[in-house]
């Protein structure tokens, strides 16, 4: 199939660009003496997770338990679930994951005694042991236990609770991934976690409570942690990139990120052209998420996209520019790859104008 034969809206990925992104991140993280644990919430596709592992990935991350179930059912056996879970329903599902895949290593992030006791109770009843990673506050003010006695007490509770074991710490500063200036982004990311490593060295280590694993970082901040105690990096968006990441300055303070390239795109059609300065696409908020800003028209900086609602995308053309035509196809660069991908059932792999592969987005909608 050629790209012109593909109906719209359709989610496509440039395979050559994606492969270059995958190899570049693995090489850069490895060169820093760290392990890469790719965050698969960006793509939700087991086959792409397997490709990341084949390049050297240290297991994978999923954001939610539902995503972990999808990945485990596809044969991926080393999974870190990066969001805390609550309620016996979830605890029982986590234990069921262990029972269904006894050869797997599944680690759950927690930040409260309730998580530890609830998971431990279900694990003991099922005869399994669940590994836990404690999320520590690192500037985002989302989940995460504060440094101090509360962290020490939580580690000691895990070690004293049957059915669970203490693996380490998660320190993820998601709020810093999109700081525009490169030097400021790296400096702020490093400063956000330095107190954690000071606490490990001066408080946890002397008590025999030092973590075996310290996991965190992302596509925008992975370079900030050289020489610290991180053992693995959780980057995810690098596989696809998006307009928000593209706008970040690189090391040389260029206005556009040149570390990774945009691979994920949405194939759209012009369905209306009411005025010379305004055209309409068949791709609105249900196809192109706008939580990180507006998408871009690939190769057409003279055209500005505006959301026209659920089903419509409005294109504003500069005065005097050549008009588009009804039925014309355009490639859009999503502003946020994760939330855009979650709106589609299928991802099509392209090389040039040829559609050469497709994947079912198996984890789509699995925010459970």
Automatic annotation (TrEMBL):
A single MF term (Gene Ontology): D-serine ammonia-lyase activity
> Which keywords annotate this record?
Lyase
**Keyword check for Lyase:** yes
Q: Where is the D-serine dehydratase-like domain?
A: 263-351
Classification via Pfam families: Ala_racemase_N, D-ser_dehydrat
Asked if the record carries the keyword 4Fe-4S, the reply is no
Q: Name its GO BP terms in alphabetical order.
A: D-serine catabolic process
Gene3D superfamilies of this UniProt entry? Alanine racemase (3.20.20.10), D-serine dehydratase-like domain (2.40.37.20)
Q: Which family does it belong to?
A: Belongs to the DSD1 family.
Protein name according to UniProt: D-serine deaminase-like pyridoxal phosphate-dependent protein
Natural source organism: Sinobacterium caligoides
Organism lineage reads as: Bacteria, Pseudomonadati, Pseudomonadota, Gammaproteobacteria, Cellvibrionales
């Amino acid at each position: 199939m050629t790209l012109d034969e593909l109906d719209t809206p359709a989610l496509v990925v440039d395979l050559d660009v994606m492969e270059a992104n995958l190899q570049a991140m693995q090489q850069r993280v490895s060169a820093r003496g760290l392990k890469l644990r790719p965050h698969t919430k960006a793509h939700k596709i087991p086959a792409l997770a397997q490709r990341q592992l084949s390049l050297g990935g240290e297991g994978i991350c999923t954001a939610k338990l539902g995503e972990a179930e999808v990945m485990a059912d596809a044969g991926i056996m080393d999974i870190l679930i990066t969001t805390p879970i609550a309620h016996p329903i979830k605890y029982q599902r986590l234990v069921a994951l262990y029972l269904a895949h006894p050869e797997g290593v599944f680690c759950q992030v927690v930040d409260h005694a309730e998580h530890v006791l609830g998971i431990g109770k279900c694990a003991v009843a099922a005869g399994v042991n669940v590994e836990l990673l404690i999320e520590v506050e690192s500037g985002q003010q989302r989940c995460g236990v504060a440094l101090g006695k509360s962290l020490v007490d939580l580690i000691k509770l895990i070690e004293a609770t049957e059915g669970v074991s203490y693996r380490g710490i998660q320190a993820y500063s998601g709020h810093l991934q999109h700081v525009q200036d490169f030097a400021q982004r790296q400096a702020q990311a490093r400063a956000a976690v330095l107190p954690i490593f000071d606490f490990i060295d001066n408080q946890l280590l002397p008590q025999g409570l030092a973590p075996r694993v310290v996991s965190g970082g992302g596509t925008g901040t992975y370079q900030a942690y050289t020489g610290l105690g991180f053992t693995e990096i959780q980057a995810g968006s690098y596989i696809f990139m998006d307009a928000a990441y593209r706008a970040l300055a690189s090391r040389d303070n260029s206005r556009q990120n040149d570390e990774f390239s945009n691979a994920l795109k949405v194939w759209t059609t012009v369905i209306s052209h009411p005025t010379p300065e305004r055209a309409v696409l068949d791709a609105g908020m249900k196809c192109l998420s706008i939580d990180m800003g507006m998408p871009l028209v690939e190769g057409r900086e003279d055209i500005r996209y505006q959301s026209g609602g659920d089903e419509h995308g409005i294109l504003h053309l500069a005065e005097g520019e050549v008009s588009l035509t009804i039925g014309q196809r355009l490639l859009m660069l999503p502003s946020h790859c994760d939330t855009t991908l979650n709106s589609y059932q299928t991802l099509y792999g392209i090389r040039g104008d040829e559609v050469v592969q497709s994947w079912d987005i198996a984890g789509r909608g699995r925010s459970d």
